[in-house]
Amino acid sequence: MDVDAGLLRAFLVVADEGTMTAAARRLFVSQPALSGQIRRLVRATGLDLFVRLPVGVRLTTAGEAFAPYAEQALAALERGVAEAAAVAGRGSLRLDVLDPSLAVPRRAVARLRERLPQLTLEVTGRGSVEQVRRLRAGDLDVALTGTSTTPDDLTDTPLLDEPLGVAVAAAHPLARATDVHLDQLTDDVHYLPRAEFAPEWVDLVVGACRAAGFEPRLLPLRTESAGGPLQLVAAGECVAVSLLSTPAPQGVVMVPLTDAPAYRWVVRTAGSGALVTSALAALHGLT
């Protein structure tokens, strides 16, 4: 039976989402490509796994019976790769997550610890430029970063899209707004990290502001953590376009941005060995 992990993963995501459109979006593939994967799985198993509804799909009785075994097979593959890596003498995974205080990196680390308990995680947060250097030098196994131009010698695997918000002081006129358009921030001073620390973030925010019709005025002070700038926001020194999930400290309100592009998290790697394969499998489907 020719059934690989990708087909099982596609089946489980479609079953979870209930529509091909939502499942394709979650898997970062086209809907025709996903439909092709499901057809391949149906041919390989000889089972009708889904029944079409007026809107979406649902599992057949056979699909419901098959689902727990598909989950077990994927979990066994993840554990097997991790065990093999440990036996081969590589019992640790070197992971850089940009900033360990951010919500998605925290969830990613928790997922890896849950699904790959055999491995010791060595977690750092040194910025995307340093990530590229370390991956190329063989000093890093996996990097969690934001999408940008992927270097030719590295591989980016999409993980999830995260909406943006703007952090404003509690006394800011927009603090009580339900959402904000970027052009409402034209007159504010904006905080951005150093371009050499996170160029993809600077490009995203500056590009979004320019698309909204203005050049952001920048605070001439930089830090390399998510928490430092928010203290400046609380003091009324600036506003800061941020990931919407960033925890807001006392004195700061995070307001959703309605016209800003999402930040796409990717898993960046330099190879495809056992450790990398295991980490990618464990992180797949992170929400």
From TrEMBL:
One GO cellular component this record assigns the protein to is: protein-DNA complex
Looking up InterPro entries in the UniProt record yields: LysR_HTH_N, LysR_subst-bd, WH-like_DNA-bd_sf, WH_DNA-bd_sf
Report if keyword Chaperone is assigned: no
Q: Which GO terms describe its molecular function?
A: DNA binding; DNA-binding transcription factor activity
Q: Which PANTHER family match?
A: LYSR SUBSTRATE-BINDING, TRANSCRIPTIONAL DUAL REGULATOR HCAR-RELATED
Q: Which family does the UniProt entry place this protein in? A: Belongs to the LysR transcriptional regulatory family.
> Where do the HTH lysR-type domain residues begin and end?
1-60
The name this protein goes by in its record? HTH lysR-type domain-containing protein
Known Gene3D superfamilies for this protein? Periplasmic binding protein-like II, Winged helix-like DNA-binding domain superfamily/Winged helix DNA-binding domain
Q: Which UniProt keywords apply?
A: DNA-binding, Transcription, Transcription regulation
Q: Does the keyword Cytoplasm apply?
A: no
Please give the organism.
Luteipulveratus halotolerans
Give one Pfam hit by family name.
LysR_substrate
